[in-house]
Amino acid sequence: MPSPIVISLDAMGGDHGPPVVVGGVREFIRRHGAEGLHFQLHGDEAAISAEVARFRLDASIIDIRHTDKVVAMDEKPAQAMRRGKGSSLWNAIEAVKTGQAGAVVSGGNTGALMAISKLVLRMSAEALERPAIVAPWPTLRGVTAVLDVGANVESDARQLIQFAIMGEAYHRAVNGVKNPVIGVLNVGSEDMKGHEDVREAHAILRDNKLGLTYHGFVEGDDIAKGTVDVIVTDGFTGNIALKTAEGTARFISTLLQDALKSSFQSKIGALIALPALQAMRRRIDPNAINGGPLLGLNGIVVKSHGGADAKGFASAIRVAVDLARSDYLDKVGANLGRLGEVIPASASTGGDNGDKVQ
Amino acid sequence: MPSPIVISLDAMGGDHGPPVVVGGVREFIRRHGAEGLHFQLHGDEAAISAEVARFRLDASIIDIRHTDKVVAMDEKPAQAMRRGKGSSLWNAIEAVKTGQAGAVVSGGNTGALMAISKLVLRMSAEALERPAIVAPWPTLRGVTAVLDVGANVESDARQLIQFAIMGEAYHRAVNGVKNPVIGVLNVGSEDMKGHEDVREAHAILRDNKLGLTYHGFVEGDDIAKGTVDVIVTDGFTGNIALKTAEGTARFISTLLQDALKSSFQSKIGALIALPALQAMRRRIDPNAINGGPLLGLNGIVVKSHGGADAKGFASAIRVAVDLARSDYLDKVGANLGRLGEVIPASASTGGDNGDKVQ
């Protein structure tokens, strides 16, 4: 029997801590089983034990690692790096570094998670400034991986290509698509559209020396259409696109609720259509599509929404398990290694990356 | 009696030409009356006359200016500039230049409209590279003006400030808000978030030497919340945010329709709730919020969606009429004139604006 894959969890992260993290483990096991898996939970032992007992989890696959120290949700990344050592977040990441765990999941402070992950695990390629965050985006055809959605404020052509390599390997590992099709987010589809960085990335991807399947430029409305499997963009645009979509979904959902409550007649109609409306809501439920991996690190780190519930946390665990079981890290490493052959020196203007996460 | 305001219309623009443009005039008059207004219609006289007769419009307020020449919807801007002279689009804009008309509306080719408007009318400030396009964005509180949504691919701090000045004056003129509140679109709300251009624009707006009401940074989900009245961003991000929101709205609308058709029971429910659902749809109907002005020109130019129907075209005419009746151009001119006093030389690094509209 092969030794189990260990998933390291920051039990104190997120808005709710142990109840959601331990509840997430229970929900994950209910959905997918626990075969070949162990869970290492970092944080307050008493609180975690109580939840493990409450959820009647099999104690033989749960390993609690006590610490009193917690990184606050509003702590600045620089502060978290200086003071975070020994915290549940730090220890959970450290377990991946030392090889005790195959992946880590945290619902904690994104900036601190990124900063400590980078410090502890280090980037897998020199040119990478910081991890890229992937958003699994629900579309009419399934899920599209959009990256970066917030880690890198400015991204040159070389970074966009790195995002393409990492996103492609990620999508294959997690969503089981053999040859994910890649697109570069832009303001139009013609070669001359957009700024220099997207045009340079477009030209390199079109040349196809990296063996990636490239569609071309895509526009904002292509994301939800599911035109391609992986969409690369700088973290500034990606973050704003993601939050704009979330805002739009909330806006329409509010209008819909108001409309269905606006009269006695519409209330009756809504009641009758309720099962269908609930099924629809599940398809755009952020909890069902939770789990944004931080790509580009020497190790697998998955960010869960801070506000996720146990079902949401279970989805994030699934992303971590799928990545840990796959050859994702090897494949990405090999392709990033080939970047130097493919990208001409003129494209690697990088280095001056004016990002700020503080 | 004061002389009437003349609205110049490119009758051949858009996907449908004269039926929608003349139908739009009829619909505008039905909604708002024609008092103090004249309409100058540029294009094929026979086709326009037939529509004017069909819609029984009062011929005394309609002035048809014949031309055979039309700029195609897929014509490149550079080509349109070289060959477009004498076309319905060109002549409609020229009428504003010569003072015959107070504003022009076209549903034609956006790139050609921008290029010819800039050539014929010229920019109202030297530092402006090309017009900014405003998107009137429906929100929970009404409408927010978002600019630029596609004309300028990169925008430095000085341009973002110009967008703020122009957007504020526009919002006051069209939406009747006395002191529109401005926000700068960013990936977070803290001062240190984002790249240099947004932080510099933020610092200048916070200093408040231009007399604008400034809220601070806003994020993608603030757009649909209606957190502020005017949101400024570079045209790359703005265009992608707008199209992402349109794609999200279409995605949810498709899911909703599928859900309501998924069973006999849900079909009954949908039928009963139909009036409420239709009222909701009207609130996000792009035709009801049609009309994106091109700001920064010496004259008022309003872009209508190419696919708009007569109701949509009427909305675009309303935007043009409101701007033409207001002191928008004077106010913007005065504020842009004060930019030099307010923005330190270090901020005006502009000039190297790598935008492409081709």
Structural features, described:
The structure is a homodimer of 358-residue chains. The first copy, chain A, is globular. Chain A folds into 2 domains: 5-122 and 297-326, Isopropylmalate Dehydrogenase; 132-286 and 333-347, Isopropylmalate Dehydrogenase, CATH 3.40.718.10. With 358 residues, chain A is an alpha/beta fold. The first copy, chain A, has an 11-stranded mixed sheet, with helices on both faces. Chain A starts with a strand and ends in a 16-residue tail after the last helix. Helices cover 46% and strands 16% of the residues of chain A. Residues 345-358 of chain A have low confidence and may be disordered. At the A-B interface, helix 8, helix 9, helix 10 and helix 11 of A face helix 8, helix 9, helix 10 and helix 11 of B.
> Percent of residues of chain A in helical segments?
40-55%
Per CATH, the superfamily of the largest domain in chain A is Isopropylmalate Dehydrogenase
CATH architecture of the largest domain in chain A: 3-Layer(aba) Sandwich
Shape of chain A: globular
Distance between the termini of chain A: 45 Å
Q: What structural class results from the helix and strand content of chain A?
A: alpha/beta
Q: What about the largest sheet of chain A?
A: 11 strands, mixed
Sheet with the most strands: spatial strand order of chain A:
3-2-1-4-11-10-5-6-9-7-8
Q: If interface size is counted as residues with C-beta under 8 Å from the partner's C-beta, which chains form the largest one?
A: A-B, 69 and 69 residues
